[in-house]
Amino acid sequence: MKCEDINRYIPAFIEDRLVGTELSSFLSHVRDCPSCYEEMETSFLISESLSRLEDGGSFDIHSELISKLENYENCVNFHNSLTLFRRVVLIIAGFCSAACFVWWII
Fold this sequence. Notes:
Blueprint: H1 3-14, H2 20-32, H3 34-55, H4 61-105
C-alpha cells in the first residue's frame, strides 16, 4: 500500500470496516511509515475525541489506539497462521491421495 492510499483507508480503519488484505496492508504500511502513522493517529484522536465529548466518556485515546492496532495485528497474524495451516493440510492431503493412488495401482 502506498502513502497516497492511506488517507482513503484511515476512516475505514477508525470505523472498523477494514478486513483481510486491506487491513493487513494498512497495518503493515502504518507500522513502517511514520508520516502515515501520524496522519492515522491524528484522525483517530480527532474522531474519538469528538465522540467522547458528545458521550462524556474518558480520554485515554492514545492508549486505545495502540490497543486497537495491537488487536488488529493479532487478528491478522492469527488469520495468516490459519491460512498457512490450511495450506499445509492440503499439501499433506495431496500426498496422501497420491500415495493411496500409487498403492492402489500396485
